[in-house]
Every structure is written in C-alpha cells, then in structure tokens.
User: What shape does this take?
Amino acid sequence: MQMKKIKYIQLILLILVFIFPMIAGTFLYFYHAHFQFKTTNHGILVNPPKMMRTKHIKAIIGKKWLVMYVPAMPCNEHCRRIQHNLNQVKLALGKNSDRVNIILSDFDMQSELSATFGKATTQKIYLIDPRGYLFMYYSSDTDPMNILKDLKHLLEVSQIG
Assistant: This one.
C-alpha cells in the first residue's frame, strides 16, 4: 500500500513538472501588462516605431544609425554641451563610430516630430535606425553613458547599418 502511494505521488510530480511551465507561460502571455519586468535599455522605447518621412532624414541616414538632438531654438550653452557629449559618445564607440551619425534637427524635422507625437518634442535625443524608423528617445538631461551603453548594445546585435 505504501509503495502505491509513493508511485502515485511521483506520477503527480512528474506531470506537474511538464504542465506547470505551460500554465505559467500562458498566464504570463495573457497578463504580461500586470508585471514590470526589468529592461536593459536606458531610453524610452517608441512602440510602434515611427517612420520618419522627411527627405532630409533619408539623405542623412544612408546606411547609418542616427542620433538626433532636437534643441530649443536658438541653440544655447546647454545645447552645445549636449552636442559635445553626443560627439564624445560617437568617439567612444571606437570601431563602430562610422556606423553612427550625430545631427541637430532643423525646423522640418521638428515639425514632423511634432506631427508624429502630437506633443512637445524639443530638448530630446532621438535614435533612428538605418531604415528611417524612430524607435527610442532620451530626455536632454540623460547621462551620455546611458546613450553609449544603448548604442553599443544596438550596434553589437544589429544586422543592419
């Protein structure tokens, strides 16, 4: 009698080992919005990514990643410091620095960003992929090291640009 009970418990445990991951996976799939999982990116992801339609952007991008800073007009000391920091980030990329362009936006790009997001778009740093999709942005007071970490990760895993 005791042996039957042990075999029954083993059978139940064996079934649970295979069934529990499926139940947990299904639960997480349908209720993922209720959990805050840690991400490795430091910027704010744009979901879904927005296609930048400005001809000027397409001419600049070529086959490179684009880091675009949108300053408040006119460009003041804060703006110049951010531009300097972004240039230092590009230099810190080392051998991958030729895969990235750094630009200050002009009025056409600012108007397109305002139309796309429908809110204030100045004082932000945007990342645009080589296909022209804006997919991440940072506030202007973000630590440049965080941008560098994200760019290094992007360039490491990307097959484009």
In short: The helical segments are 2-30, 55-61, 77-92, 107-117, 144-157. The first strand starts at residue 44 and ends at 51.
